[in-house]
Amino acid sequence: MSHISNNLNEAVAILSSGGLVAIPTETVYGLAADASNPLAVKKIFAAKGRPADHPLIVHIADAEQVAQWAINVPSIAYRLFNAFWPGPLTVICQKAPQVNPVVSGGQNTIGLRVPDHPVALALLKAFAGGLAAPSANRFGKISPTTAEHVLNELDGKVDLILQGGRCEVGIESTIVDLSSAQIRILRPGMISAAAISRVLGQEVPVVAKTAETPRVSGSLASHYAPNTPAELVPAETLSKRLAELNDQKLVMLSHLPIPQASNISLIQLPNNPLDYAHELYAALREADSKGLDRILIVDVPAEWQAIVDRLQRATHR
Ligand code: TXA
Ligand code: MG
Ligand 1 pocket, 19 CB below 6 A? Predict the structure, then answer.
Protein backbone atom coordinates (compact mmCIF):
# COMPACT_ATOMS: atom_id res chain seq x y z
CA MET A 1 0.00 0.00 0.00
CA SER A 2 1.31 3.39 -0.98
CA HIS A 3 0.05 6.61 0.54
CA ILE A 4 -0.11 10.29 -0.31
CA SER A 5 1.52 12.63 2.20
CA ASN A 6 3.01 16.10 2.76
CA ASN A 7 5.74 14.77 5.02
CA LEU A 8 9.15 15.83 3.65
CA ASN A 9 11.05 14.26 6.55
CA GLU A 10 9.48 10.90 5.84
CA ALA A 11 10.34 11.32 2.14
CA VAL A 12 13.98 12.08 2.96
CA ALA A 13 14.17 9.07 5.29
CA ILE A 14 12.75 6.75 2.61
CA LEU A 15 15.11 8.08 -0.08
CA SER A 16 18.12 7.84 2.26
CA SER A 17 17.37 4.19 2.93
CA GLY A 18 17.08 3.34 -0.76
CA GLY A 19 13.29 3.56 -1.23
CA LEU A 20 11.10 5.17 -3.88
CA VAL A 21 9.16 8.43 -3.48
CA ALA A 22 6.87 9.93 -6.11
CA ILE A 23 7.46 13.67 -6.31
CA PRO A 24 5.51 16.54 -7.83
CA THR A 25 7.26 18.71 -10.40
CA GLU A 26 5.88 21.51 -12.56
CA THR A 27 5.78 19.17 -15.60
CA VAL A 28 4.55 15.76 -14.40
CA TYR A 29 5.04 13.65 -11.25
CA GLY A 30 8.36 11.81 -11.07
CA LEU A 31 9.27 8.44 -9.48
CA ALA A 32 12.36 9.35 -7.49
CA ALA A 33 15.27 7.45 -5.95
CA ASP A 34 18.68 8.46 -4.61
CA ALA A 35 20.66 8.88 -7.85
CA SER A 36 23.89 7.85 -6.10
CA ASN A 37 22.46 4.51 -4.94
CA PRO A 38 22.40 1.98 -7.82
CA LEU A 39 20.19 -0.49 -5.96
CA ALA A 40 17.61 2.23 -5.32
CA VAL A 41 17.75 3.35 -8.96
CA LYS A 42 17.18 -0.23 -10.12
CA LYS A 43 13.90 -0.25 -8.18
CA ILE A 44 12.66 2.56 -10.46
CA PHE A 45 13.09 0.40 -13.56
CA ALA A 46 11.32 -2.50 -11.85
CA ALA A 47 8.40 -0.36 -10.63
CA LYS A 48 7.84 1.19 -14.05
CA GLY A 49 8.49 -1.95 -16.10
CA ARG A 50 11.02 0.17 -17.99
CA PRO A 51 13.91 -1.34 -19.99
CA ALA A 52 17.24 -0.90 -18.18
CA ASP A 53 18.86 0.83 -21.16
CA HIS A 54 16.50 3.83 -20.95
CA PRO A 55 18.38 6.61 -19.13
CA LEU A 56 16.86 8.59 -16.24
CA ILE A 57 16.94 12.33 -15.55
CA VAL A 58 18.80 13.38 -12.39
CA HIS A 59 16.96 16.19 -10.60
CA ILE A 60 19.17 18.64 -8.73
CA ALA A 61 18.55 21.67 -6.50
CA ASP A 62 20.43 24.25 -8.58
CA ALA A 63 22.90 24.71 -11.44
CA GLU A 64 25.86 24.65 -9.03
CA GLN A 65 25.32 20.89 -8.66
CA VAL A 66 25.77 20.23 -12.39
CA ALA A 67 29.51 19.71 -11.86
CA GLN A 68 28.83 16.75 -9.54
CA TRP A 69 27.17 14.85 -12.39
CA ALA A 70 28.59 16.12 -15.68
CA ILE A 71 31.91 16.97 -17.27
CA ASN A 72 32.92 19.14 -20.24
CA VAL A 73 29.76 21.19 -19.83
CA PRO A 74 29.93 23.85 -22.56
CA SER A 75 29.89 27.41 -21.24
CA ILE A 76 26.76 28.28 -23.23
CA ALA A 77 24.90 25.72 -21.14
CA TYR A 78 24.92 28.31 -18.36
CA ARG A 79 22.87 30.63 -20.56
CA LEU A 80 20.18 27.95 -20.60
CA PHE A 81 20.45 27.37 -16.83
CA ASN A 82 20.14 31.12 -16.19
CA ALA A 83 17.23 31.54 -18.55
CA PHE A 84 15.19 28.44 -17.75
CA TRP A 85 16.12 26.88 -14.36
CA PRO A 86 14.30 26.13 -12.21
CA GLY A 87 11.98 25.06 -15.02
CA PRO A 88 10.83 22.51 -17.60
CA LEU A 89 14.19 22.04 -19.31
CA THR A 90 16.43 18.96 -19.19
CA VAL A 91 19.97 19.11 -20.53
CA ILE A 92 21.99 16.10 -21.67
CA CYS A 93 25.70 16.44 -20.91
CA GLN A 94 28.70 14.12 -20.78
CA LYS A 95 28.49 11.98 -17.65
CA ALA A 96 31.02 12.42 -14.88
CA PRO A 97 33.00 9.15 -14.53
CA GLN A 98 32.02 8.60 -10.88
CA VAL A 99 28.29 8.52 -11.72
CA ASN A 100 27.00 4.95 -11.77
CA PRO A 101 25.94 4.00 -15.33
CA VAL A 102 22.71 2.41 -14.05
CA VAL A 103 21.31 5.98 -13.87
CA SER A 104 22.26 6.78 -17.46
CA GLY A 105 21.05 3.47 -18.89
CA GLY A 106 24.67 2.56 -19.62
CA GLN A 107 25.30 5.68 -21.72
CA ASN A 108 28.19 8.07 -21.18
CA THR A 109 25.82 11.03 -21.03
CA ILE A 110 23.54 12.23 -18.23
CA GLY A 111 20.24 14.14 -18.17
CA LEU A 112 19.96 16.95 -15.58
CA ARG A 113 17.11 19.19 -14.53
CA VAL A 114 16.19 21.67 -11.77
CA PRO A 115 12.41 21.35 -11.38
CA ASP A 116 10.29 24.41 -10.65
CA HIS A 117 8.02 23.12 -7.92
CA PRO A 118 8.22 24.23 -4.26
CA VAL A 119 7.80 20.69 -2.90
CA ALA A 120 10.43 19.23 -5.25
CA LEU A 121 12.88 22.04 -4.47
CA ALA A 122 12.33 21.75 -0.71
CA LEU A 123 12.87 17.99 -0.94
CA LEU A 124 16.05 18.37 -3.01
CA LYS A 125 17.39 20.85 -0.49
CA ALA A 126 16.55 18.64 2.49
CA PHE A 127 17.88 15.48 0.80
CA ALA A 128 21.05 17.26 -0.30
CA GLY A 129 21.68 14.95 -3.25
CA GLY A 130 20.50 14.21 -6.76
CA LEU A 131 17.21 12.38 -7.37
CA ALA A 132 16.91 10.12 -10.40
CA ALA A 133 13.30 10.36 -11.56
CA PRO A 134 11.45 9.36 -14.69
CA SER A 135 7.76 10.17 -15.00
CA ALA A 136 5.80 8.17 -12.40
CA ASN A 137 3.80 6.00 -14.81
CA ARG A 138 4.07 2.44 -16.10
CA PHE A 139 6.35 2.28 -19.15
CA GLY A 140 4.67 3.60 -22.31
CA LYS A 141 1.63 4.93 -20.45
CA ILE A 142 0.35 8.43 -19.76
CA SER A 143 2.44 10.57 -17.40
CA PRO A 144 0.70 11.50 -14.12
CA THR A 145 -0.18 15.11 -13.38
CA THR A 146 -1.75 14.56 -9.94
CA ALA A 147 -0.74 12.55 -6.85
CA GLU A 148 -3.94 10.53 -7.30
CA HIS A 149 -2.89 9.49 -10.82
CA VAL A 150 0.34 8.10 -9.34
CA LEU A 151 -1.53 6.23 -6.63
CA ASN A 152 -3.88 4.67 -9.21
CA GLU A 153 -1.01 3.52 -11.36
CA LEU A 154 1.79 2.58 -8.94
CA ASP A 155 0.01 1.63 -5.71
CA GLY A 156 2.21 -0.80 -3.79
CA LYS A 157 5.25 -0.06 -5.97
CA VAL A 158 6.21 3.29 -4.41
CA ASP A 159 6.82 3.86 -0.70
CA LEU A 160 5.37 7.39 -0.53
CA ILE A 161 3.70 9.88 -2.87
CA LEU A 162 4.36 13.52 -2.00
CA GLN A 163 1.32 15.71 -2.49
CA GLY A 164 2.04 18.71 -4.69
CA GLY A 165 -1.31 19.42 -6.30
CA ARG A 166 -1.89 19.47 -10.00
CA CYS A 167 1.20 19.96 -12.20
CA GLU A 168 1.26 23.46 -13.69
CA VAL A 169 2.87 22.71 -17.08
CA GLY A 170 1.31 19.28 -17.59
CA ILE A 171 3.66 17.72 -20.18
CA GLU A 172 7.28 16.60 -19.83
CA SER A 173 10.30 18.89 -20.02
CA THR A 174 12.05 19.96 -23.20
CA ILE A 175 15.26 17.91 -23.60
CA VAL A 176 18.31 19.64 -25.11
CA ASP A 177 21.36 17.56 -25.99
CA LEU A 178 24.55 19.47 -25.13
CA SER A 179 26.78 16.40 -25.08
CA SER A 180 28.29 16.99 -28.52
CA ALA A 181 29.04 19.95 -30.77
CA GLN A 182 25.71 19.45 -32.56
CA ILE A 183 23.23 20.95 -30.08
CA ARG A 184 19.73 19.64 -30.67
CA ILE A 185 16.36 19.13 -29.07
CA LEU A 186 15.58 15.47 -28.39
CA ARG A 187 12.09 16.03 -26.98
CA PRO A 188 10.01 19.16 -27.58
CA GLY A 189 8.35 20.73 -24.55
CA MET A 190 6.71 23.95 -23.47
CA ILE A 191 10.07 25.73 -23.59
CA SER A 192 10.09 26.02 -27.38
CA ALA A 193 12.90 25.43 -29.86
CA ALA A 194 12.57 29.11 -30.77
CA ALA A 195 13.10 30.22 -27.15
CA ILE A 196 16.16 27.97 -26.80
CA SER A 197 17.59 29.12 -30.13
CA ARG A 198 17.13 32.75 -29.06
CA VAL A 199 18.99 32.25 -25.76
CA LEU A 200 21.83 30.33 -27.43
CA GLY A 201 22.03 32.67 -30.42
CA GLN A 202 21.97 29.76 -32.83
CA GLU A 203 19.34 27.66 -34.58
CA VAL A 204 18.73 24.51 -32.52
CA PRO A 205 16.95 21.80 -34.50
CA VAL A 206 14.40 19.36 -33.12
CA VAL A 207 15.53 15.82 -33.91
CA ALA A 208 13.04 13.93 -36.03
CA LYS A 209 11.12 11.27 -34.10
CA THR A 210 12.49 8.31 -36.00
CA ALA A 211 16.09 9.46 -35.59
CA GLU A 212 19.00 7.32 -34.55
CA THR A 213 20.76 6.65 -31.32
CA PRO A 214 19.98 8.62 -28.17
CA ARG A 215 17.57 6.42 -26.32
CA VAL A 216 14.90 8.90 -25.38
CA SER A 217 12.03 6.65 -24.36
CA GLY A 218 9.64 9.50 -25.07
CA SER A 219 10.96 9.30 -28.61
CA LEU A 220 9.41 5.90 -29.23
CA ALA A 221 6.68 6.31 -31.83
CA SER A 222 4.11 4.90 -29.40
CA HIS A 223 4.21 6.42 -25.91
CA TYR A 224 1.94 8.30 -23.51
CA ALA A 225 -0.70 5.89 -24.80
CA PRO A 226 -4.20 5.24 -23.43
CA ASN A 227 -5.57 1.67 -23.55
CA THR A 228 -8.60 2.66 -25.63
CA PRO A 229 -7.80 2.97 -29.37
CA ALA A 230 -7.11 6.65 -29.95
CA GLU A 231 -6.84 8.60 -33.17
CA LEU A 232 -6.00 12.12 -34.20
CA VAL A 233 -8.42 13.69 -36.67
CA PRO A 234 -7.85 16.94 -38.58
CA ALA A 235 -10.70 19.40 -37.96
CA GLU A 236 -11.36 19.54 -41.73
CA THR A 237 -12.17 15.83 -42.02
CA LEU A 238 -13.91 15.45 -38.66
CA SER A 239 -17.49 15.32 -39.93
CA LYS A 240 -16.58 12.66 -42.49
CA ARG A 241 -14.85 10.56 -39.82
CA LEU A 242 -17.77 10.95 -37.43
CA ALA A 243 -20.15 9.73 -40.13
CA GLU A 244 -17.98 6.62 -40.61
CA LEU A 245 -17.99 5.97 -36.85
CA ASN A 246 -21.64 6.69 -36.14
CA ASP A 247 -22.23 3.17 -34.75
CA GLN A 248 -19.42 3.52 -32.18
CA LYS A 249 -19.40 5.09 -28.75
CA LEU A 250 -16.79 7.82 -28.90
CA VAL A 251 -15.06 10.08 -26.48
CA MET A 252 -13.71 13.20 -28.10
CA LEU A 253 -11.06 15.67 -26.97
CA SER A 254 -11.39 19.01 -28.71
CA HIS A 255 -10.10 22.54 -28.33
CA LEU A 256 -12.71 23.65 -30.92
CA PRO A 257 -16.49 23.78 -30.41
CA ILE A 258 -18.07 20.48 -31.50
CA PRO A 259 -21.76 19.89 -32.30
CA GLN A 260 -23.45 17.49 -29.87
CA ALA A 261 -24.23 13.92 -30.91
CA SER A 262 -25.75 11.05 -28.93
CA ASN A 263 -22.76 8.71 -29.47
CA ILE A 264 -20.14 11.30 -28.47
CA SER A 265 -18.92 12.09 -24.98
CA LEU A 266 -17.08 15.40 -25.32
CA ILE A 267 -14.13 16.58 -23.22
CA GLN A 268 -13.69 20.23 -24.09
CA LEU A 269 -10.11 21.49 -23.90
CA PRO A 270 -8.84 25.10 -23.89
CA ASN A 271 -8.01 26.73 -27.22
CA ASN A 272 -4.48 27.82 -26.25
CA PRO A 273 -1.35 25.68 -25.86
CA LEU A 274 -0.47 26.57 -22.24
CA ASP A 275 -3.85 25.56 -20.82
CA TYR A 276 -4.25 22.69 -23.27
CA ALA A 277 -0.95 21.14 -22.11
CA HIS A 278 -1.93 21.68 -18.47
CA GLU A 279 -5.13 19.65 -18.95
CA LEU A 280 -4.11 17.13 -21.63
CA TYR A 281 -2.98 14.10 -19.63
CA ALA A 282 -5.83 14.29 -17.12
CA ALA A 283 -8.22 14.50 -20.10
CA LEU A 284 -6.61 11.44 -21.74
CA ARG A 285 -6.94 9.49 -18.49
CA GLU A 286 -10.57 10.54 -18.11
CA ALA A 287 -11.26 9.59 -21.74
CA ASP A 288 -9.62 6.19 -21.24
CA SER A 289 -11.51 5.51 -18.00
CA LYS A 290 -14.85 5.79 -19.79
CA GLY A 291 -14.07 2.47 -21.51
CA LEU A 292 -15.79 3.46 -24.78
CA ASP A 293 -14.98 2.17 -28.27
CA ARG A 294 -12.60 4.88 -29.35
CA ILE A 295 -10.96 8.17 -28.42
CA LEU A 296 -10.95 10.86 -31.12
CA ILE A 297 -8.68 13.87 -30.68
CA VAL A 298 -9.19 16.92 -32.86
CA ASP A 299 -5.79 17.86 -34.26
CA VAL A 300 -4.21 21.06 -32.94
CA PRO A 301 -2.25 23.80 -34.75
CA ALA A 302 1.24 22.71 -35.94
CA GLU A 303 2.77 25.57 -33.90
CA TRP A 304 1.74 23.74 -30.71
CA GLN A 305 4.82 21.61 -31.36
CA ALA A 306 5.21 19.80 -28.03
CA ILE A 307 1.50 19.02 -27.86
CA VAL A 308 1.45 17.74 -31.45
CA ASP A 309 4.36 15.48 -30.49
CA ARG A 310 2.50 14.00 -27.47
CA LEU A 311 -0.76 13.57 -29.42
CA GLN A 312 1.02 11.73 -32.22
CA ARG A 313 2.62 9.31 -29.77
CA ALA A 314 -0.62 8.82 -27.81
CA THR A 315 -2.43 7.87 -31.02
CA HIS A 316 0.31 5.87 -32.75
CA ARG A 317 -0.76 2.32 -33.60
O1 TXA B 1 9.47 16.68 -17.18
C2 TXA B 1 10.20 15.69 -17.10
O3 TXA B 1 11.25 15.57 -17.75
C4 TXA B 1 9.75 14.57 -16.17
C5 TXA B 1 9.83 15.07 -14.73
C6 TXA B 1 9.54 13.99 -13.72
O7 TXA B 1 11.08 15.67 -14.49
N8 TXA B 1 10.59 13.42 -16.33
C9 TXA B 1 10.49 12.63 -17.41
O10 TXA B 1 11.31 11.51 -17.31
O11 TXA B 1 9.76 12.84 -18.37
P12 TXA B 1 11.23 10.28 -18.32
O13 TXA B 1 12.26 9.33 -17.88
O14 TXA B 1 9.83 9.79 -18.38
O15 TXA B 1 11.68 10.92 -19.65
C16 TXA B 1 12.98 11.45 -19.71
C17 TXA B 1 13.54 11.24 -21.05
C18 TXA B 1 13.57 9.78 -21.42
O19 TXA B 1 12.95 9.66 -22.67
C20 TXA B 1 15.04 9.44 -21.44
O21 TXA B 1 15.33 8.48 -22.41
C22 TXA B 1 15.66 10.80 -21.75
O23 TXA B 1 14.88 11.70 -21.04
N24 TXA B 1 17.03 10.85 -21.28
C25 TXA B 1 17.46 10.86 -20.02
N26 TXA B 1 18.80 10.82 -19.97
C27 TXA B 1 19.22 10.80 -21.26
C28 TXA B 1 20.49 10.73 -21.88
N29 TXA B 1 21.61 10.67 -21.18
N30 TXA B 1 20.54 10.72 -23.24
C31 TXA B 1 19.41 10.76 -23.97
N32 TXA B 1 18.19 10.81 -23.43
C33 TXA B 1 18.08 10.82 -22.10
MG1 MG C 1 8.10 9.15 -19.15
Answer: no
